[in-house]
Structure formats: structure tokens, C-alpha cells
Input
Amino acid sequence: MRGEVLVLNQNYEPLNICRWQRAVTMLYLGKALPLAHDSREIHSPTTSIRLPTVVRLAEHVKRPLPQVKLSRSSIMARDAHTCQYCGKRTKPLTVDHVIPKERGGKHTWDNVVACCVRCNGKKGNRTPREAGMSLVRPPARPRFIPYLSYSTFTWALRNEAWRDYLEPFAPHLVPH
Ligand SMILES: [Zn+2]
Output
């Protein structure tokens, strides 16, 4: 991730990741403002600037929100590969319908969670209340997805220069 720059929308929402050359051009044109730098400088005949690591757009960019695909991998990523009943990262993980499908539960973001095999077996065909189990966190459609994919987001979180800017959008994904 050296030389790559996190681009935030004007409202600080993570938008994308670009090469430093593009970020420097945006700064030069006044289309973006620098938020964080690394220690390196780049020089031209007339000027020298510190390499940005995070920039923020000067004007808000509106983009249509693409539909988040509900898939096994996106559920696992949302739940940080953590069982939503016991809170452990025990593998293998499966997808649990909080209200079982046979009981009218839907296959929607707010009714599916990552679940370890042990908890899945314990819960069986019951609701969490019937099984005396509770969820670590109520499932919901993830909110940061529109612009950065899960895999990009989790990868980007490993960059310390970016973490502070990404964390508010997915605190549960931040590695410990
Ligand atoms: Zn579990």
C-alpha cells in the first residue's frame, strides 16, 4: 500500500484508493485537500510537497448507491468472521437465519449472521429467545459498503495511516 492514497468524500466518507500521482494532481488542481502525509517528499523543479496518505475532496461527490450483494462472503466480512452468538472466531463458520426460514424468517441482511457450528447446533430450529441465546450485535445492512468493497476495506484498515479515517465506518472490523 506504499504510494497509495485514501480518498475521502467531502463528508469524510471513504470513497476510494488511488495512486499518489493522482492524489497530487487533485491537490494541485484544488479538487482535494490533504488530511495526512507521510514523511517522504516529492520534488519538482519549482516546488516540493510531502506525499499525502489521505486526502479529502473539496466538493461532495454524489454517487448512486449500488446494491450490496447478500452473499456468504459479504455476511462473513460484515461480521468480521466472528460467530455472532459466542463472539469467537471459531472455524468453520456457517450462515444462521436468526428467525429460522421454516418459521418465516427471511434471507435478508437483518436476519442473517455468521455463526459457528457449535452455536448453530445449539440453536437448532429455534429463535434466539427460545434457545436462550443472544446476539453480539443486531444484524443490519452494512453502511460503508457503497464505495469500498469489504475486501478493500478490511485490507485498508491494516494501514495505520488510514485507520482513523476508516474506523468510524466499521468499528467492528478493526483488527485488535
Ligand atoms: Zn458460536
Remarks:
- Residues 72-131 form a domain with the DNA Binding (I), subunit A fold (CATH 1.10.30.50).
- Residues 103 and 125 are 8 Å apart (CA to CA).
- The longest strand covers residues 32-43.
